[in-house]
Design brief:
heterodimer; A: 112 residues; 0% helix; B: mainly beta; Immunoglobulin-like; 6-stranded mixed β-sheet; 58% strand
Chain lengths: 112, 106
Amino acid sequence: GAVVSQHPSWVICKSGTSVKIECRSLDFQATTMFWYRQFPKQSLMLMATSNEGSKATYEQGVEKDKFLINHASLTLSTLTVTSAHPEDSSFYICRAGGDGYTFGSGTRLTVV
Amino acid sequence: GIQVEQSPPDLILQEGANSTLRCNFSDSVNNLQWFHQNPWGQLINLFYIPSGTKQNGRLSATTVATERYSLLYISSSQTTDSGVYFCAVGNTPLVFGKGTRLSVIA
């Protein structure tokens, strides 16, 4: 079946630094990538949608200059959290879509 | 946009008990899925069920699309069933409810 590899699984970074999260579709072409964020004990909220080769579309309230999304190929999309702060600590998960849709395994980010 | 409400928000069960989780949605949908999020955050797809009834082992789900609700049944619960159960509707994008946090105690 369709597999999406998401890395890293968890990361701890210092406040002010940037962190890159990768999602790779291993056996299918992901024309669309959805990025979700989940704060502790809360639901998954859509952050942005990207189509390969196009700029991402961000949901209301999500800072596009802070959460940089790159979807330059059909098998790789990245989310970079720039100048991370403790309030960015969260669980980030991607959902890749081609013919069907598959979630990555998620990344737990802790900013200290 | 579409609204998804889940109940109850929290549930504690004795091992072996049965339970029913409910998902109400505000508009007609062509996609409804139930997920189990394990303690490590992984989302396990349980059912794709825009309408009708499906069963998989101790789990079953029913969606009544005309009345805009879906039910997830867990029978003979086990401690490994603990976690958060999400209902999600739509497709692009998928909209999640707030989840039901289930704790099964031995």
